[in-house]
Specification:
There is one protein chain. The protein folds into two domains: about 250 residues, 4-Layer Sandwich (Metallo-beta-lactamase, Chain A), CATH 3.60.15.10; about 150 residues, Flavodoxin domain (Rossmann fold, 3-Layer(aba) Sandwich), CATH 3.40.50.360. Helices cover about 30% and strands about 20% of the residues. The chain is built from twelve helices and 21 strands. A seven-stranded mixed β-sheet has the order 1-2-7-8-9-10-11, with no helix packed on it. The chain has a five-stranded mixed β-sheet with strand order 12-13-14-15-16. β10, α4 and β11 form a beta-alpha-beta unit. The chain starts with 20 loop residues before the first strand and ends in a 26-residue tail after the last helix. The relative contact order is 0.10.
């Protein structure tokens, strides 16, 4: 279904006036534009800036505000809100996500609308307290929502969908039943600022949409698929995310794109009958390369394991990320140079924040001349990424002997046995792979 601009939605830059923008009958965008932003959360480049989308829904019995904006843009938010509602009309403040770019105006909004009831997801109370930090024993009232819960504005109903880890544990979606509008939080969003606001009027943002998914949602594919099971059955006239264009023209194609992006990796997988091991290495004088070949030979001797070998000196980093996401185990071979692993190894490891690694098996090996710090440093980094490291790293001084190459083959076979369940028990520090969840420290809110 497609919604077209109504008479009170002008065809030129609806946000230029600084007023609220009606996106459906009685539903307004009250967010802010940040066209100057060029980096978000230190991991995303934002060539077009971003938007902090917030919304107000009016019903017969009051107003619900859905999300707020980054603190620096609170003035824009309050000006737009005041243009369509009085504070004593606000009955609910719904927070689909508590990250500071969506809750920066929350404390002041709570002060201005003291009678409004705060609605958060069932995973959010601890985060809310960390965000607001009430003094002493002072508490504040809030209600928690789960899938199937609803609130009423008289003639309008807001329902809730519990969609955790998209991309924080607290995230949820809200659904305006009568207008068939999904307030999706960060899901289906992107960092793309255009004051024309709607997807059928802004510039081409397809790259920004996929780029956002790759860096924000991709590590949580299992949770994306769980959320899609809740979202796909809904009638949808419009999707209102917290970043980027409002999706009123063919909104289902963005839902379909999420399913495609969340399942496309399956084509890279070797199949249920095989486990996939990827061995990456870089070698200064050939010693680590010979070890890598021996590790591969040992791993290939174990039935049910498929092994791939890549020299990092001859490849770009980005294409490896898809391979890593589909792999069951990774082994990194690096010489020790100036007391450290070589830069291409660190570059690859640092790029892996965009995929879920929890529960994957990791291993490290390499030749060294003096001290050999590279191997334990790589192991520590893999554990920090929530990988399991069941086979102790292998270090060889200078040129490997035949006996040492035999040790490398044994190292590879033990690694493969750990992959197939025939070897060592999991490293206790590696964690559980069941959900692909990342551990996030909310004590240090950005």
């Amino acid at each position: 279904m497609t919604m077209r601009p109504t008479g009170n939605m002008p065809e030129t830059a609806p946000t230029q006036s600084g007023d609220a923008v009606e996106i459906a009958d009685g539903v307004h965008w009250i967010g802010a534009l940040d066209s100057a932003l060029r980096s978000f959360d230190m991991i995303l480049r934002t060539a077009n800036g971003t938007t902090y989308n917030a919304y107000a829904v009016r019903g017969a019995h009051g107003v619900a505000v859905i999300d707020t904006v980054k603190a620096e843009f609170s003035g824009d938010f309050f000006r737009r809100l005041e243009s369509i509602a009085d504070y004593d009309e606000i009955r609910f403040i719904v927070l689909n996500h508590l990250e500071p770019d969506h809750t920066g105006a929350l404390p002041e909004l709570m002060r201005r609308a003291p009678n409004a009831r705060l609605i958060i997801s069932k995973r959010a109370p601890a985060m809310l307290k960390a965000l607001l930090k009430p003094p002493g024993d002072d508490n504040f009232d809030y209600d928690v929502a789960d899938t199937g819960d609803e609130i009423s504005l008289g003639d309008r109903t807001l329902g809730f969908l519990h969609t955790p880890f998209l991309h924080w544990p607290d995230t949820q979606c809200s659904y305006l039943v009568e207008e068939q509008i999904l307030f999706s939080g960060d899901v289906f969003g992107c960092h793309y600022c255009d004051d024309r606001l709607f997807n059928d009027r802004v510039g081409d943002f397809r790259f920004s949409f996929d780029y956002y998914y790759a860096h924000i949602m991709r590590p949580f594919k299992p949770h994306v698929l769980d959320a899609l099971k809740l979202i796909e059955p809904l009638p949808l006239k419009l999707i209102a995310p917290t970043h980027g264009p409002i999706l009123r023209d063919r909104p289902r194609r963005y839902v379909a794109r999420y399913r495609e992006l969340s399942t496309s990796g399956d084509c890279f997988e070797p199949g249920a009958e095989h486990r996939s091991l990827i061995v990456f290495y870089l070698s200064a004088y050939g010693s680590t390369a010979r070890m890598a070949e021996a590790v591969c030979a040992g791993a290939e001797s174990v039935p049910g394991v498929r092994v791939s070998l890549y020299d990092l000196e001859g490849g770009e980093i980005d294409p490896f990320v898809d391979l890593i996401e589909a792999a069951d185990a990774l082994a990194f071979g690096s010489p020790t140079v100036n007391g450290d692993a070589v830069k291409p190894v660190w570059d690859l490891l640092s790029s892996l924040a965009v995929v879920s690694l929890r529960g994957k098996i990791g291993a490290a090996f390499g030749s060294f001349g003096w001290s050999g710090e590279a191997v334990p440093m790589i192991e520590d980094r893999m554990r920090g990424l929530k990988m399991r490291v069941p086979v102790p790293g292998l270090r060889v001084k200078l040129i490997p002997t035949d006996d040492e190459l035999a040790q490398a083959r044994d190292f590879g076979s033990r690694l493969a046995l750990a992959m197939t369940g025939g070897g060592h028990s999991p490293d206790a520090r590696g964690g559980d792979a069941a959900r692909g969840e990342r551990v996030i420290d909310f004590a240090d809110l950005k």
